[in-house]
Specification:
The protein is an alpha+beta fold. Helices cover 26% and strands 29% of the residues. The protein is built from ten helices and 24 strands. The chain binds N-oxalylglycine and zinc ion (2 copies).
Length: 392
């Protein structure tokens, strides 16, 4: 047995030392130098042993399975030392928990609250955000990891950003996207061309008004972040409109709780069909995370199928749907801008609804290109950049 531990990719440090540790029934009770008290269940501690027998050093992944611990496994000895919390187990195994790791992962209320604060909350916005929109330049994003991190951070918190100076050439949007990760490909292509097409397979590829929507609500997993890059915009009309779906959701939760409940529980059908494909998915317009926070907005009026619900609920469902649509049109929530060639919107497609005003294809050309990247890629890149920037 050794006291070695397999390090995580992240580094954990704490200014606080372990002062005392003692066994108390099924738990180990720890007192820290700042007075914080944390308690750790024997199974939790055994499960998190990071010794080279329990963890594969090569991948830094766990090989030990907690089911293999004896049911009566007990802490035989415990001590608080400078290197960390040391435990000898009743079966002879030994574990060491570094103070920084233990503090960062402790499950007392104060530590859990610190983790929730560090995760951050979405910054909700409405009309006033038009003047404070987060702007990034293509040149900065291509050259500077700090700017790239700030861009991803804005996508995670605000959900809507504008990038300027992206060369107005086909597929130029792929260069800043490649700074993040790979694409989420769809049946509309790796990169999709948004222009008025004679054989359109989506309302997006005509000149009609596109009311506020998320793209591909017809999929089990809607694309996470959407990039829309303007190559040509000479046509009259076609302005971009954005609405923060989380701001609408939270306003509805406060102002119309019954409608909010309906939209978070009743599945709506979304369909996208052409001669060769038939995509369908049904899910509530507003999805909540396990803590009850808003996690996702799913909506495109032009892709909706008929409501499939007991007739007795129809009145309530339509009241909630009409309210939601009214809120997406409400000027207090929306911002409107006209794109110029070289502009690129990047937004959280599972949060922010986007719209396009009708345009007149006879008045001039209009050509955008779009692509998607899933939220996982944004989050992973954000975490690695954070690690690297902090290590500098
Ligand atoms: C789309 C879309 C916006 C625009 O293609 O899904 O929303 O401005 N396009 O054309
Ligand atoms: Zn171990
Ligand atoms: Zn769209």
């Amino acid at each position: 047995m050794t006291d070695d531990t397999v390090a995580d990719w992240r580094t954990f440090s704490t200014p606080f030392a372990l002062e005392r540790a003692e066994r108390d029934g099924d738990e180990v009770a720890v007192v820290w130098s700042d007075g914080r008290r944390t308690r750790h269940h024997r199974y939790w501690l055994r499960d998190n042993c990071a010794c080279p027998q329990c963890f594969l050093a090569l991948t830094r992944e766990q090989v030990f399975e907690i089911v293999d611990a004896p049911a009566d496994l007990a802490v035989a000895q415990v001590s608080a030392e400078a290197e960390g919390l040391k435990i000898s187990w009743s079966d002879g195994h030994r574990s060491l928990y570094a103070p920084g790791w233990l503090r960062a992962n402790a499950n007392d209320a104060a530590s859990r609250q610190e983790r929730a604060t560090a995760r951050g909350k979405p910054f909700l916005w409405g009309r006033e955000y038009a003047d404070r929109l987060q702007n990034f330049t293509h040149a900065d994003l291509m050259a500077d990891d700090g700017a790239l991190f700030a861009w991803l951070d804005a996508l995670k918190t605000q959900g809507l950003t504008l990038v300027t100076g992206v060369p107005a050439e086909p597929e130029a949007l792929l260069a800043p996207i490649a700074r993040i990760s790979h694409l989420r490909e769809t049946n509309f292509g790796r990169v999709f061309d948004v222009k008025s097409k004679p054989q359109a397979d989506s309302a997006a590829y005509t000149a009609v008004n596109l009311p506020p929507h998320t793209d591909l609500p017809t999929r089990e997993l809607q694309p996470g972040v959407q990039f829309l890059h303007c190559l040509v915009n000479d046509a009259t009309g076609g302005e971009s409109v954005f609405v923060d779906g989380f701001a609408i959701g939270e306003a509805m939760r406060r102002e119309q709780p019954q409608a909010f409940h309906t939209l978070t529980t009743v599945a709506m059908a979304f369909w996208n069909r052409d001669s060769r494909t038939d995509y369908r998915w049904s899910a509530p317009i507003l999805a909540l995370d396990p803590q009850g926070g808003l996690d996702e907005v799913r909506f495109a009026n032009f892709l909706r199928g008929p409501v499939d619900a007991p007739e007795s609920e129809m009145g309530e469902i339509y009241a909630a749907l009409r309210l939601f649509q009214a809120m997406t049109r409400d000027a207090r929530f929306s911002i409107e801008r006209r794109m110029k060639p070289g502009d690129m919107w990047a937004f959280d497609n599972r949060r922010v609804l986007h719209a396009r005003r009708e345009f007149d294809p006879a008045s001039g050309a209009r050509h955008l290109q779009g692509a998607y990247v899933d939220r996982d890629e944004i989050n992973s890149r954000w975490r690695v950049l954070k690690r690297e920037l902090e290590a500098r």
